[in-house]
Amino acid sequence: MNRDTGFPVADAENDFLRVRRQQVMSRLAAWMRRAPDDVNIMLPFDEVVSALGHAGERRLGLQVITLDSIVGSVDRSREFDRRFRPTSGLVRERWQRLALAQRRGESIPPIEVYRIGDMHFVLDGHHRVSVAHALSLKTIDAYVTEVMTRLSAEGVRYRGDLLVKDYRRVFLERVPLTGEARRSIALSEPEEYGDLAENIEAWGFRLMQDEGQFLDRATVARRWYEEEFQPVVRMLRQAALIETESEVKAYMSVACERYRLIRSHRWDDDVINAIQEQKRR
């Protein structure tokens, strides 16, 4: 438990030494647990925007935000960890100066942040955020600019999550599903989005050959979902070929297996029987 000495200068120095110890111990604990490398790394703003797709900005002005909602940085991600603890002693002088001012009750300017979803990214004020965390504050004043993105930021907490979001964004550019269809097609592995996009585009090409007309991407996406995906999923459920996996994962696995077994793109009882037989082996 941290105890103040009553001397603001000494307490500010102790504050810095304490958070540096915490940062080192946290990094060591993550290494011993063999946790992913991105567990203690703050999210880089540019990478998040790139993965989700920039759609616009608007200034919201001065607001009170929670410190726990601040998860990233615009350009200082190497100087602080995920909890804004200093990663070296290089920031010590400025950090202690701000901690001293905070302890003396001096006025501290608001920070500046970008907001994406419910997450905030610091543009200016990294040291102020770090000191606020060290002093166990819960909120901080901030000038907020909201960034709208093409994809929702829901589910993004670590840097590794961005790869899946980035692949999903590209997938939806190639296969512009909407509404319930868009919500129902969700995958956990980035490369699966590429495989599924190729599958859908091939299906669309065969459809255009059969009908002798050009179809745009939106039309192919809608018709694939209505005429291919949904009917196949119903067949798979009736044949008990969907167990614990999601509908889209089940579709992808059997679509590839169908062609490997009988070299056909059709769906009928013979296809289902062949797949069932293969699964029993």
TrEMBL record:
SUPFAM superfamilies: ParB/Sulfiredoxin
Domain of life, per lineage: Bacteria
Alphabetical list of InterPro entries matching this protein: ParB/Sulfiredoxin_sf
Protein name as annotated: Chromosome partitioning protein ParB
Organism: Actinophytocola xanthii
